Structure formats: C-alpha cells, structure tokens
Amino acid sequence: IHDFIHLFNVVGGLCITVLTTEYSLLLLNTSIVEFLSIIFHLLLDGRIFTTATSTVCMAAGPCRLVSDTFCMILGALVNMNMIHSITIIAVSFWYRLRVLRGEGLVGKLRLQLICLLLFVPHLVYLVAASFAADDPRELEPIVDAAYHDGYASNYTLYGFVDLAKPLTGVVISYLAVFPICCNVYIIYVRSQVSAL
Q1: Where is the chain membrane-spanning (predicted)?
Q2: How much is the pTM?
C-alpha cells in the first residue's frame, strides 16, 4: 500500500505541477497585459468623445510631455491591450476545457506561442490605427463645437474625423468585431466547461 500511495503522490504531483505551471503561464500573460494597461492609462489619462460621424480621443496625462504622437500610440496600445486581455481569457477557457476533457497538456512553449500568435493581429491594428488617425487640427473644431472655443487646446487630440473612410472603418470594425467574437467564444466554452 505504501508503494501505491507513493506512486499516486509522485505521478499525481507531477501532473498537477505541469498543469499549474502551464496555467500559471496564462496568468502571467494576463498579469503583464493588465499591468501595462494600468501604466498606459496613467500616462494617457484619456477620454473619448464621439459624434455621429467622428471619434475623438482626448489625452490630458503625462504623455503630453513627450509628444502628441506618443499619446496617440498609447491610446492605441490601451485599446490593443484591452482586446488582447479578452483574447487571453478566451485561450484560458480553451485550455481549461481541453484539460477537463482529458485531451492532454499543451506544453509551456506551445501555449506561449499561441499567446504570441494571437497578439500579431493586434500589431496590425496598431499600424492601421496610426495611418488612419486624422490630423489633430481637424479634430479641434469638433471638440470646440461640443464644448466651447479653445476647449480642445487643453488636450492632446487624436482620432477620426470621418468614420466612413475605408481604413478608419477597418480600425473601428476591428475594435468591435474582434472582442465580440472572443466574448461569444468565451460564453460558448464557458457553458461547455460548466457542463463538465
């Protein structure tokens, strides 16, 4: 009996250790993304202002000390991190379902590779958002018309004057469609995990 208990503890302990090591990799990814989001938010101190045809982001944070472009990139990084955080949650539920079904472990390297591969589309978004952003001077009249003359001068502005432009449409659609798809997947997999 002692040998059986020892074997059970060793084999069971190894399986639990490998499982928790892989899952802790997902937790580490989530923690890093959330930490960066907090730093980006603190540097940006941003607000979003929308009209029927435009979206303007207004930054009042320390990023203004560096440059307007830096604030714009931080704003895009905030959006990118939000979407990547949802992506990692989807991967976590996929991983949990896989383990509960007994399909085996993925491996730390493969799991990290999956997280990195799912990050690549967000980099494409970052580049597209940079090219789609309109000149801040075009955004000032939109903000001033909503508040009062000179209000826009208190902020670093970045965003889109016309949401109907093709590249702007792609960027805005990405910000809506990708999270919707991830959330639908999370709900679907969550229901399967709950059923097990």
Answers
A1: 6-28, 73-97, 109-133, 167-188
A2: 0.78
Q: d(Cα 61, Cα 71) in Å, to the nearest integer?
A: 8
Which own/partner contact pairs does 116-123 have at CB distance under 8 Å and 24+ positions apart? 118/84, 118/87, 118/88, 118/91, 119/84, 119/87, 121/174, 121/178, 122/80, 122/83, 122/84, 122/87, 123/80
Say which DSSP state 161 is in: S
Q: Which residue(s) pair with 46 in the sheet? A: 59
Give pLDDT, residue 102: 86
Look at residue 102 and give its three-state secondary structure. Answer: coil
Cα–Cα distance for residue pair 147/26, rounded to 1 Å: 44
Q: Which residues contact 11 (CB under 8 A, 6 or more apart)?
A: none
Domain borders along the chain are 2-195
User: Can you list the residues of the chain whose pLDDT is less than 70?
Assistant: 1-20
136 and 75 Cβ atoms separated by less than 8 Å: no
Question: Are 175 and 83 a contacting pair, CB within 8 Å?
Answer: yes
Question: Which pLDDT score, from 0 to 100, does residue 122 have?
Answer: 87
